[in-house]
Amino acid sequence: MRNLHIYILYGLVAVLFGLVFYYKNDSPKVTSSENEHWLPLKRESTQIGAPKQVARVKLFDIPNKMEFAGEPVPLNESDIKERFEREIYVNVYWESNMLLMMKRANKYLPMIERVLAENRIPDDFKYLAMIESGLMNVVSPAGARGFWQFMEGTAKDYGLEVNKEVDERYHYEKSTIAACKYLQKSYAKFGKWTSVAASYNIGQAGLSRRMNDQQQPDYYDLLLNEETSRYMFRILAFKEVFEHPSKYGFELTNDDLYHQPELKTLVVKNTIPDLAEWAIKNGTTYKVLKTYNPWMRKTKLTIRRGNQYEIQLPID
Length: 316
Prior knowledge:
The protein has helices at 2-26, 78-92, 95-118, 126-133, 152-157, 172-190, 193-202, 204-214, 226-243, 275-281, 286-292; strands spanning 37-43, 53-59, 67-68, 71-72, 263-268, 309-314. It is mainly α. It has a two-stranded antiparallel ribbon with strand order 1-2. A two-stranded antiparallel ribbon has the order 3-4. Helix 10 crosses helix 11 (286-292). The longest helix has 25 residues, at 2-26. The chain is globular and about 60 Å long. Residues 19-35 and 41-45 have low confidence and may be disordered.
């Protein structure tokens, strides 16, 4: 009986090796056009006696000229170009993240672009929101929240309501308006949009201090911490890839993108003690209510006398 078990085990191992050999030889071959530049990358095979497998990584033609908010990027400097190139490859070859960002951006960029334009903020700042949050209502380790990653104190300074039941850092449009106020104030201080973007990461006081200490008024001439040093180049990388997606291998159709449904606005002036019950009475669900109104943080909504809120729901 023991010998029978051994024979069965050997047989299963042989079948397994046979399947591995079959699929390795039957896998599709990668082809490329003559004008594409590929870098061979040797990969050791785990199969004894098998030939070495070779994967190929595409190299991209990095642009020699680029602007952010109308301000030239000094890509003629080797250090600057290398830092920019690093972010291109890091983000392009994180394919899942870039792909989902492109699909998600279609839902929110129209609103962000509109609000930026209404507040006379350069359109390139939409990429700042992307690298801050991935256009998701995330929470940083420090407690910053929402698309624009506001800390609670800063959010209140720029007109956002933050309490136990309401947190407008999660309100897509209101938080974008608050971000515009911050950017306008920062531009009044620095006079350069590149510095404005950098200050969003390190803070206005932090950037001013480093400019004074190093006696350099330009972001690209400053020695900064790792995060702020990479910050502008991440923005530039997203701008480059979003403006030339097919160059970097991203060819999405309109059907591939995520779409925001048409929404209706309901004005509420009285306290809602049970949001789930309110949702059902208004022909929807608690899940849908919270999905399109993430600024509501509890199961109820207390409304003070004379106050009101706008709730958005998909049109049936």
